[in-house]
Design goal:
Strand order of the largest sheet: 1-2-3-9-4-7
CATH topology: Jelly Rolls
Distance between the termini: 30 Å
CATH class: Mainly Beta
Number of helices: 2
CATH architecture: Sandwich
Radius of gyration: 16 Å
Helix content: 10-25%
Number of domains: 1
Number of strands: 9
């Protein structure tokens, strides 16, 4: 059974609001391990999210794993330096939401480039090329929510089927 879209959008909206209201902090301790168990209701604060530094900026992981109706969940906030991108446009089997919390740049979506600004939310279907680049002069901050529904077969990559 597919998870209703309104549930997924509501979960993403809640995560967006929490991330937007989280204060910036200079150090972080990883959250308690949830390996092998389903998520439980809780708040993970900015300073508790597992932080990693990269040449392009900073990544903070909040929830990974599975919830009541979703699996392969990955939620994080990226802070991308001007002129940088987390990675080149890519594709994967999971559905994904990207919500812009601050900054400006360019969306890369299915071979097209579109302006990106604070307040935008991108939804990406499985196997669609996507990404974003910070073209502004300030850091670009976005929330990513990537997931698959439980009981829903992972869609096959159309490019692989065409071969």
């Amino acid at each position: 059974m597919r998870t209703p879209l309104i549930v997924l959008v509501s979960a993403a909206a809640g995560a967006i609001a929490a991330a937007a209201l989280a204060p910036l902090a200079s150090s972080a301790a990883p959250p308690p391990a949830d390996a092998g168990s389903r998520f439980r209701s809780k708040v993970v604060r900015w300073e508790e999210a597992a932080a990693t530094e990269h040449p392009w900026g900073e990544f903070r992981r909040y929830f990974t794993g599975e919830g009541a109706g979703v699996k392969d969940v990955f939620t994080a906030v990226a802070v991308v330096k001007p002129g940088e991108a987390v990675h080149k446009a890519h594709k994967h089997a999971e559905e994904e939401f990207l919500a812009i919390l601050a900054g400006e740049g360019v969306w890369h979506l299915d071979g097209k480039e579109l302006p990106l600004k604070k307040g935008d939310i991108l939804y990406v279907e499985p196997w669609v090329m996507h990404g974003c680049t910070n073209t502004g002069s300030e850091p670009l901050k976005f929330l990513v929510v990537k997931l698959s529904g439980k009981g829903v077969p992972v869609p096959a990559d159309p490019a692989a089927q065409a071969k």
